[in-house]
Amino acid sequence: MKNKLWIIAGVAIAVFCLIGQKDCRGAADFDPIAWRNGDYRTRGMMCRSLASSNILVGKNRDEVVQLLGPPDEDWPEFTKYAIDLGGIWERWMMRYNFMIEFDKESGTVTTAHLIDA
């Protein structure tokens, strides 16, 4: 009986961990209109597509804002858009950011990637 309880507990923990993985589940192709009008979850579904497309690389800050809308945080060398990756416990524990970094001299995007908030 005791062994069965340990097995059930182990399976329950494994399932919970799999459901809560940090992943862009329900991934969607990047759509600038959906990004601008969407919520954190909508953005989270497009994060991989946007990062891997490299469409932001070489754009200046004004072009980025025109494409993505106003950022949630804006600094001289980077800007951030808050996103939700859709994990079960992540909604309560942490939010993620899609970070866009700008070159100091040219002011154009050098890289865009996902970071912990």
Identify the notable features of this structure and list them briefly.
117 residues, alpha+beta, four-stranded antiparallel beta sheet, 20% strand, elongated
What would your notes on this structure say?
With 117 residues, the protein is an alpha+beta fold. The chain has one domain. The chain is built from five helices and four strands; from the N terminus they run ααααββαββ. The protein has helices at 2-19, 32-37, 40-53, 61-68, 90-93; strands at residues 73-74, 78-83, 96-102, 109-116. A hairpin with a 6-residue loop joins strand 3 (96-102) and strand 4.
Total individual domains: 1
Q: Kindly, what is the distance between the CA atoms of the first and last residues, rounded to a whole number of angstroms?
A: 43 Å
Indicate the percent of residues in helices. 40-55%
Mean pLDDT: 81
Shape: elongated
Largest sheet: 4 strands, antiparallel
Structure annotation, total helices? 5
Give the topology string: H per helix, E per strand.
HHHHEEHEE
- Content-based structural category: alpha+beta
- Uncertain ranges: 14-24
Number of strands: 4
Rg from Cα: 18 Å
**Share of β-strand residues:** 15-25%
Please list the strands of the largest sheet in the order they lie side by side. Answer: 1-2-3-4
